Amino acid sequence: MQVTRDTFNDVMVPNYNPAAMVPVRGEGSRVWDQDGREYIDFAGGIAVNVLGHCHPKLVSALHEQSNKIWHLSNIFTNEPALRLATKLSSATFADKVYFANSGAEANEAALKLARRFALDNFGENKNEIIAFKQGFHGRTFFTVTVGGQAAYSDGFGPKPGGVVHAEYGNLEMLASLMSEKTCAVMMEPMQGEGGIIVPDEDFVSGVRALCDKHQALLVFDEVQSGMGRTGALFEYMNIGVVPDILTSAKSLGGGFPIGAMLTTNKIAASLVPGSHGSTYGGNPLACAVAEAAFDIINSQEIFEGVRKKESLFRQKLEEINSKYHVFSEIRGKGMLLGAALSPEYQGRARDFMLAANQQDLMCLIAGANVVRFAPSLIIPDEDIVEGLARFERGIATLLSK
User: Fold this and answer.
1) Is 202 marked as a binding-site residue?
2) What share of the chain is helix, strand, coil (3-state, %, to 5)?
3) 221: annotated binding-site residue?
4) At 394, is the pLDDT very low, low, confident or very high (cuts 50, 70, 90)?
5) C-alpha torsion 331→333→338→342, nearest 10
6) Which of 39, 232, 325, 327 has its CA 20 to 30 A from that of 345?
7) % of the chain with per-residue pLDDT over 70
8) Which CATH topology does 5-54+300-400 take?
């Protein structure tokens, strides 16, 4: 059966507007479309393909597990899930792990757990969740309400209550909103969709102190910033602020859908049997691939490599900007970087992304004013250099129009 980009318009719900080309094959940091045209991938499936496309060890793990057992449901446990949970808890602050299928589901679980823990320990009046404007936590109705972007949550009727938003980085505003009613503060330790915003570390430690003061849980959404992407296994390790609950997805599975919520024994006790669940969560196939990805990522060699590749990215982006003066700053950490557009190019991030795509480079946006790069952690240096040369050609073409 022959399908093309036009087939999308015929059969798919129009909530996406995908690129004109249709990728069919990937290897490492390179992708080929239906016409055999080759692209360098700086998008990484939106910070998912943490080891590139078709990494041999991930392919091997998937093949091996596919010949054993695919699905069981949570009526039974399975060896890959138990091994992955053990490794995640051993490498982090956490004692317990809950598996889901996505970042949104992991965040849904975290929010429900925070409410349930508060109910169990403080009573029904402690139910308020505070999050941050321009945050992003998923597309379920609960998570999209907690995420602080009205463009994603408006238009679907009455929203879940008990959710308040503060300005990211404004500790004084957060302090004014918190009270004995606050059961949790949810935040990205580095905002992704909101524009690749790296907070002041004093702000993050201040949020931790306010949560302690008000006996509220601190929930870190590390769906985008986690699994080595910022030069540590999780960004909280760079900051030195430990959350009560942490969520992971995207890079966790190296391209295979999986999400996880991590927490302590004390907090986990509130999710008793029957209180929450997922048919596919902890799927043996997903956990086997994620375990293989974890084994590769969780190494100082990878983390050091990420920091070196960040320096190369920044150097080349600054060289581009010295010629074209299109960026006000380069934001982010590791292999999660954002080129914030100068005032005269505000609102045109998508134009820059499309111009790059026309020069055979895949990249992203983070809002209307930031071009986002989230490539493989092990992308070869020569692909970074060549990819940014293509990006520069896209900028030159765009500005010449």
Assistant:
1) no
2) 40, 20, 40
3) yes
4) very high
5) 10
6) 39
7) 100
8) Aspartate Aminotransferase, domain 1 (3.90.1150)
288 annotated ligand binder: no
Say yes or no to pLDDT of 148 above 90: no
**Residue 394 assigned as binding residue:** no
Burial class of residue 293 (count of CB atoms within 10 Å of its CB; 0-12, 13-18, 19+) = buried
pTM: 0.97
Does residue 85 surpass a pLDDT of 90?
A: yes
CB contact at 8 A, 49 and 41 = yes
Q: Is 222 annotated as a binding residue?
A: yes
The bridge status of strand 245-248 relative to strand 259-263 is antiparallel
User: How would CATH label the architecture of 57-297?
Assistant: 3-Layer(aba) Sandwich (3.40)
Determine if residue 103 is labeled as part of a ligand binding site: yes
* Residue ranges of the chain assigned to CATH 3.40.640.10: 57-297
Share of the chain above pLDDT 90, in %: 98
Is 314 assigned to a binding site? Answer: no
Confidence of residue 348 (pLDDT cuts 50, 70, 90): very high
For 282-323, what is each residue's pLDDT tens digit?
Answer: 999 999 999 999 999 999 999 999 999 999 999 999 999 999
Q: Is 224 annotated as a binding residue?
A: yes
What's the pLDDT band for 28 if we cut at 50, 70, 90?
very high
Which pair of structure tokens corresponds to residue 6?
Answer: 């036009």
Residue 66, annotated as binding a ligand: no
Residue 140, CB-side half-sphere exposure with 13 Å CA sphere: 16
Whole-angstrom distance, CA of residue 401 vs CA of residue 360 = 19
206 annotated as belonging to a binding site for a ligand: no
Query: Which residues are bridge partners to 379 per DSSP?
Result: none
